[in-house]
Design a protein that fits this description.
By secondary structure, the protein is an all-alpha fold. The chain has two domains: 48 residues, Arc Repressor Mutant, subunit A; 131 residues, Tetracycline Repressor, domain 2. 72% of the residues lie in helices and 0% in strands. It contains ten helices and no strands. Helix 4 crosses helix 6, helix 5 packs parallel to helix 9 and helix 9 runs antiparallel to helix 10. It is elongated and about 55 Å long. The termini are far apart. InterPro entries: DNA-bd_HTH_TetR-type_CS, Homeodomain-like_sf, HTH-type_TetR-like_transc_reg, HTH_TetR, TetR-like_HI_0893_C. It comes from Alicyclobacillus fodiniaquatilis. Keywords: DNA-binding.
Length: 191
């Protein structure tokens, strides 16, 4: 059995993200990923059972990274409105600083892959922090009593759509734009 090298695993993750953003799911292959990562095709199978396993692990890795970034400044004792603002601001920072990962997440989420791979909601600490924030807001009657995923979607998608336009160089998000989107999101989820 070959020894796993985290640098090679990271190179494979990076190559997968970059190639998917460049050529999409239909044209990607393990050999193309290996070549882009500068590893042998056999090396990929040291880390992943198959292409689906690799996509699943890359997706979960990026999702966890994004979730941790979104909650890095959130303290459970913060006022709900302040936490909401911080989550959305940190999400925009993640997108701006990790454009390839964000575009990968967008493409992956819009594809049939999540259903095909039977991906479930991650139970990592960052995801739990987001749900704790929503649950506390509902308990305190600050947030609407809707499903957490619905409420979180009103925090994620407005920033994601705006950031997509910025990443693709169609607009520049100003502080006023960010404040307006955060206010509209807050108006959508608060009681």
């Amino acid at each position: 059995m070959r020894h796993k090298d985290e640098n090679k695993r990271d190179a494979i993750f990076r190559a997968t993200i970059e190639l998917l953003n460049q050529i999409g799911f239909s044209d990607i292959s393990m050999s193309k990923i290996a070549k882009h990562a500068k590893v042998s095709s056999a090396t990929i199978y040291v880390y992943f059972d198959n292409k689906d396993d690799m996509f699943r692990k890359v997706y979960l890795d990026v999702k966890e990274k994004m979730s941790r970034q979104m909650t890095r400044h959130v303290d459970i004792s913060m006022p709900i409105r302040d936490a909401h603002r911080q989550i959305m601001t940190d999400l925009l920072d993640f997108i701006r600083n990790n454009q390839d990962e964000f575009l990968f997440m967008e493409q992956f989420s819009a594809s049939p892959m999540p259903d095909r791979l039977l991906l479930q909601e991650s139970s990592e600490i960052a995801i739990r922090t987001l749900h704790d924030f929503i649950n506390r807001g509902k308990y305190e009657n600050v947030l609407k009593p809707y499903d957490n995923k619905l409420l979180l979607s009103y925090c994620y998608f407005p920033i994601a759509r705006l950031a997509t336009a910025e990443v693709r160089h169609r607009i520049h998000i100003t502080e006023d734009d960010l404040n307006a989107v955060i206010q509209m999101s807050w108006d959508a989820i608060r009681m």
